[in-house]
Design a protein that fits this description.
single chain, alpha/beta, 7-stranded mixed sheet, 6-stranded parallel sheet, 14 helices, 13 strands, globular
Length: 332
Amino acid sequence: MIKGKILLLSGNPGIWSPFERIHEKSYMNGVEAWAFALNADYRYSLKTNISDLQNYEIVICNSNLFALKHCLKLCLNRPKNQFWITMIEGSASDYLNPHPYFIELIDHSDLVNVINQKTLDYFRSLTKTRTEYIGIPYPVDEIRKFRVVAENRNRKIFICLTSLNRINDIMIARQTGLPFYIYENIISRKIKNIGIFFKNMTISKNYFLKKAIEKYPDLEVLPETSLKEYFRFNSKSFIWLNIDPRFTWGRFVLDAAALGIPMVTTSSTGHGDILFPFTCLNNEFDNEKALELIKRLSTDRDFYNQVSNYPENKMNYYKPENMVKRLFDFIK
């Protein structure tokens, strides 16, 4: 068992320890979940210097594309005997023409953590470094506490994306006859977002929200919210729709499964085939099948319950304690 300190590097600003954010542990479903699972310190990659790596036995580095050059510098100059894990960030499609910095980073790593099982062979072909499908810890038991019984849910479809990213989910939802809603990003007025304000010639933090409402007047668009509120509010929805083309870590799929809400999703998410095999599409273009599945879910109570209950015994892999064990098995 690893006894030394562990450091997590990623793309969200901040420097903190799990103790300082213990209130987030119960619903953290992103990369930062590793900090809680491993009792690891967290640092924003671009605000990390070589001297900050001292005294850590293991570093887990998320491969944010904007930070590759800096992360490579840290990796190449890390303390002797420090174990370096590079974790794939975002969709595998972003790496089909991999940047040389990325190739060099994984080549100099001790382990590569692939977050989508369907992409494992591809990433293994890029490097001789040991490359395994591990993923990200998920607070299964805590998220289950947000569950709402089916009888008390609103007959609404939650579209799991921001409205300006994809139109497919919206087109499908429109044809179901059910009300549907979606979230849109709020632009935080921080220095790091100044480029967004200049690009869009606006000073309004609600720019994307207003733009979405204008583009889709029939769509209920909500401003993005905290994770805790996200789980509390969306646990009351009837069906989740996530026609995702990306080969990434499908957090929405895990969320729906933990909440016991049926989801129509895609095979590319990696989890769709495992957790929602009855409502998983082969690809993001199968609109007719998606529509057929939603209509069946809304009229066939037995099918609705079957889809809702199926993931119940399939979530053990994602629990933090099991994810940590899997990670350490590959470090030995």
